[in-house]
């Protein structure tokens, strides 16, 4: 199955989580083992919200993204990567100790 985003939305920008839910609804109507192609031809912008919601709802679907512009591809990469959180536990502990001793 192929989903052509520009034809589906008649827009060149994908800004909302609701747009991603529409795509996911189309995917959910087919078996998980079916391969899907999501075609980004004509899409010049996809927000982080759209990309993140799409990622969140894929749940095991075999999906290939095609024809993405570099900016859209970068946003998808950001949304699909895990955040890296660095904690400076020594300074946090010192701040907590200072708060509890005063």
Structure description:
This protein is an alpha/beta fold. 50% of the residues lie in helices and 17% in strands.
SSE layout and pairings?
Elements: E1 2-4, H1 5-9, E2 13-14, H2 17-28, E3 35-39, E4 45-46, H3 48-57, E5 62-66, H4 70-80, H5 89-101
Parallel strand pairs: 1-3, 2-4, 3-5
| Rg over C-alpha atoms, rounded to the nearest angstrom | 19 Å
The appropriate CATH architecture is 2-Layer Sandwich
Alpha-beta content class: alpha/beta
Helix content: 40-55%
Uncertain residue segments? none
Which descriptors apply to this entry?
single chain, 102 residues, alpha/beta, Transcription Regulator spoIIAA, three-stranded parallel β-sheet, two-stranded parallel sheet, 5 helices, 5 strands, globular
Please give a quick description of this structure:
This protein has helices spanning 5-9, 17-28, 48-57, 70-80, 89-101; strands at 2-4, 13-14, 35-39, 45-46, 62-66. The protein is an alpha/beta fold. The chain has a single domain (2-101), classed as 2-Layer Sandwich (Transcription Regulator spoIIAA).
